[in-house]
């Protein structure tokens, strides 16, 4: 099968011809139609998990995808060959990922795709959609609250903006001027240009007591300290970049957490249902064929995402 993989940590991803993987016990082999691109894909290729897990090379990149069930491993119940499914596929120990014509997932990391949802849209929900849902729920976003979302224009942020607005919150989204209108269309009531000076200062000028919730999917540790100054005493902070220091923020009675997102079948099904019902819109930045995935990864490395990039595999 054709797949996009790296031959060693730090190598440039390239299209390779590799054997079709086999589904072991509790696993499902999926013929991939579309894969979602995440910044973590090139970070894994660079070695982000090298100290945490053994890796096998060539290492096929890609965490998330959608396709149809091609084969079931032993002991799998609840799925049948031909089912339309989506979920998480990153399995570095066996060299597996979603940027290939076939990929293996644990059955518990998959859910069925509702009829109304395309493979393209389903492909980008497993990581960004579930991360956004877990950040919004983990910070207990409630009606009437002010929620500042930093990194709002990217994959996770576009979902988080919609989910927070749908809960009746007043969303302030970071966005460069050219993205402000599209963020308002997703439910943000205000935008702050993060390239035009410190975000916290401008937010505090409008909300002197601070915002209730900060969801941050872009800041490093120093930037997080700066932007968290905009959160009120007793507020909540949810972060996807491992930049929060929960102990330091607890000094202002702020409940902060670094999310380690592990999508369950239940959370996958909830985001897919939200898309099927029209409550959640998928913002696709662009669709590229598998052969162009290496170039798309290079663009992700350079930043400037506007929603999600989809890799059309079949
Ligand atoms: N912990 C977990 O389990 C988990 C799960 C999923 C994702 N993540 C991480 O979460 C982060 C976001 O993922 P993603 O898929 O949403 O990335 P993405 O699609 O590449 O989007 C990142 C967005 O952040 C914006 N941005 C960059 N610097 C910014 C700044 N200083 N202030 C405000 N916005 C800024 C970018 O817009 P501009 O280019 O216009 O600035 C871009 O729209 C990544 O680091 C990813 O690895 C973690």
Characterise this structure.
The chain is an alpha/beta fold. It folds into two domains: 2-124 and 282-312, Quinone Oxidoreductase, Chain A, domain 1 (Alpha-Beta Complex); 128-258, Rossmann fold (3-Layer(aba) Sandwich). Helix content is 27%, strand content 28%. The protein contains ten helices and 16 strands. It has helices spanning 39-46, 119-123, 125-138, 155-166, 180-185, 199-206, 221-227, 246-250, 265-276, 293-301, and strands at residues 2-6, 14-17, 27-37, 59-60, 64-72, 84-88, 102-106, 110-112, 146-150, 170-174, 190-192, 211-216, 231-239, 255-258, 284-289, 308-312. Strands 3, 5, 6, 7, 8, 15 and 16 form a seven-stranded mixed sheet that branches. The chain has a six-stranded parallel sheet with strand order 11-10-9-12-13-14, sandwiched between helices. Strands 2-1-4 form a three-stranded antiparallel sheet, with no helix packed on it. Helix 3 packs across helix 4 (155-166) and helix 3 (125-138) crosses helix 9. It is globular, with a radius of gyration of 19 Å. Bound molecules: NADP nicotinamide-adenine-dinucleotide phosphate. NADP nicotinamide-adenine-dinucleotide phosphate (NAP) is lined by residues 38-40, 127-128, 131, 150-151, 153-157, 174, 176, 194, 217-218, 223, 240-241, 259-261, 300, 303-305. The site of NADP nicotinamide-adenine-dinucleotide phosphate (NAP) has 28 residues, from helix 1, helix 3 and helix 4.
